[in-house]
Amino acid sequence: MTRTDGRILALDLGTSSARALVLSAVDAAPVPGALARYKISPTYATGGSATLDLHEYVEGLLGCLDELQQNGHLDDIGAIVLSSQWHSIVALDNKGSAVTPVITWADTRAVSLDLGSSFDEHAFHARTGSWLHRLYWTRRIPWLLSEGSPAGFAGLPDLVLERLTGERVTSVSIASGTGTLDLAHGSYDEEALDIAGVKADRLPPIVPTGWTGSLSSEFGRRWPGLVGVPVHPPTGDGAASNVGTGGYDETTAAVTVGTSAAVRVVHPIDDAPELPWELWRYRVDDKRAVTGMAFSAAGNLHAWLTGVLQLDSDEPTGIEIGSSRVIAAPFQAGTRPPETVASGSGVYFGLSFDDTAADLLAASLQGASLEIDRGLRMLDSLFGRQLQVVLGGGGIDASAWWRRCLTATFARPTTVCAEAEVGARGAAAIALGLSPDPGGEHLTPAPAEVDRVHTLRPRYTALRELAVKASRELG
């Protein structure tokens, strides 16, 4: 990996937007005004469908580049990097054309698998970092094969890269999010392929981190300043966000709050600690992995509540952290594997006529903080130390109350990343060997807030157990 003398063009392939932005080559900080965004509206339908229109998505992204070009921002670009949502899949025909929309991580359609008593899912999880969950290609490909006769499969970032360069390849980072990668060897896992019912030649080839492509002649004519600029393979958004936040070694956990939330640690893949069943592990690049836990309720929960409750403020004004009588298990969007709490399982307990909209918002943000804390404590144990914590992402940036709540819940100091564009920044850092500093404010937990959260924790744990049980029995 080498640094670039020019600025960096970052393409960020999210679920709610496709973005193009220009970053400084020194510290991967966004260049003021050099950002273009295309809003994406996933299509949700009965049966668990959650999809994106591939053509609209790609054309929207290309339009972002046109906008940057028109405003003079595509000059002096030395590298093109990509950060992308993990877990998407598209079925392809024998000509490589898409025969399905982009099926996102939120789509719940998949086949159930019965592999018999000889299958060792714990060994499979230790090797691939994933479970036999509908999130992964091990269950999605058999479902797609049962619905038609696709010749191949690829993810959204693979097809964006192909549109730009003419080469359909994937990175070890993106491949790890499919659940079909042997993490230690960085190649497709034979047992995972057998379960999915495909050979490796039906999936995009995995290229090393140092691979680069170049824009096709079509786009060279469209954006002359990008001719010959190396295009680096994409990085999964979770790995990119960790590094972009400043959590790029095993001393530091990064907590990122966007649409969903996660707590993760980046560490060498060699001699990695044994993976606990409750955590996932993916790859950052050829030498590093990222281990963590993800949560389905975060910024989406905050946005939903402020809309439903018609709050004038995004903050639970007047509510002291840890003080609300109301407790909430934030399972409105269910849970990630290995737990199987279904969407629609959110719970409030302790409501009275004295409670306000601010009480409900505070209880939900506190519940989400306690969920993240569960993952952080597992990572503390895994790496044998109390980890330093950096906070980043749009949800962190939007709410000072939530930043303080997380700090009190973790009962340790935190550092807030000064840059909101952590995914794009991290993709640049990974591709070019940069080590960005968080550069933001340092928060110290208030003892009174820590004590109140400590007192609240057993009540939350009891409610959580009831919510999980009710989801299984009533779902």
From TrEMBL:
Give all residue intervals belonging to the Carbohydrate kinase FGGY N-terminal domain.
8-244
Q: Where is the Carbohydrate kinase FGGY C-terminal domain?
A: 253-431
Keywords for the protein's UniProt record, in alphabetical order = Kinase, Transferase
Q: Name one GO molecular function term.
A: kinase activity
Q: InterPro entries under this entry?
A: ATPase_NBD (IPR043129), Carb_kinase_FGGY (IPR000577), FGGY_C (IPR018485), FGGY_Carb_Kinase (IPR050406), FGGY_N (IPR018484)
Highest taxon of the lineage? Bacteria
Secretion signal: which residues? none
One GO BP: carbohydrate metabolic process
Question: What family, per the record?
Answer: Belongs to the FGGY kinase family.
Under what name is this protein listed?
Answer: Gluconokinase
The species this protein belongs to is Kribbella antiqua
